[in-house]
Write a structure and sequence with these properties.
This protein folds into two domains: about 80 residues, Arc Repressor Mutant, subunit A, CATH 1.10.10; about 110 residues, Rossmann fold, CATH 3.40.50. It is about 40% helix and about 15% strand. The protein has eight helices and ten strands. Helix 1 runs antiparallel to helix 4 and helix 2 packs across helix 3. The longest helix has 19 residues.
């Protein structure tokens, strides 16, 4: 990863995921070039924002033509870590955890659910797709056996911190928090909180403005 790609602000990374989805769709349709104006229109931002965002990656456009879509998509995937394979463990085999485990689109983006664990005896041993729910007390060996790099916390808010602590103790350095509550982690561990509530608030604000209410 180049120096410019190592410290990208979260808001820019979020837009890059959207750039990638748009550019990959164009490439799949056989469209070879995309302009900053096309990107700005697709994301409802101005061209200046697009140009500033793309200063963070090692990829340049061509005057009057724009960006070559296949190469652009490849660089975006690398920047977002999608050129690697990431094995994940889901902690919590409830509705949220199960739905994520069965999400068929994750593997296309380099994310693989290696295991799903729970503490509930009624869930342990149940089938989720091609997997069986494992006992969370075996988390350390599960992570080692399946070469897990990422953890997903899909438990109730009251259990989220203990789930994170168990993941950290087992050596996990990156977590996605779906519990919608604050989780404290040491500096050496990266954690990303789900934006479901924030996204709903953004949606309600947009609809309110459109309806003038």
């Amino acid at each position: 990863m180049g120096e410019r790609e190592s410290n990208i602000p979260p808001s820019v990374l979020e837009r890059m995921t959207k750039y990638l989805a748009f550019v990959q769709e164009l490439a799949d349709e056989g469209i070879e070039w995309v302009s900053s104006a096309d990107l700005a229109k697709a994301l409802s931002v101005n061209r200046s924002t697009v140009r500033q965002d793309l200063l963070h990656i090692d990829f340049s456009g061509i005057s009057r033509r724009g960006y070559e879509t296949k190469g652009f998509a490849k660089v975006l995937r690398r920047t977002l870590g999608m050129d690697l394979e990431w094995n994940m463990v889901i902690v919590g085999a409830g509705n949220v955890g199960t739905a994520l485990a069965l999400h068929g689109d994750l593997s296309r983006r380099g994310f693989y659910v290696g295991a799903i664990v729970d503490k509930d005896p009624e869930r342990i041993g149940c089938e989720v797709g091609s997997m069986r729910v494992l006992d969370v007390s075996d988390l350390a060996s599960v992570i080692e056996d399946h070469d897990i790099k990422l953890g997903v916390i899909a438990v109730p808010a009251a259990e989220a911190q203990s789930a994170a602590d168990a993941l950290i103790k087992a050596g996990i350095k990156g977590m996605l928090n779906l519990a919608m509550t604050h989780i404290a982690v040491p500096d050496k561990v990266s954690i990303v909180d789900s934006r479901i509530v924030a996204d709903l608030l953004q949606l309600s604000h947009a609809v309110k403005n459109k309806l003038n209410i």
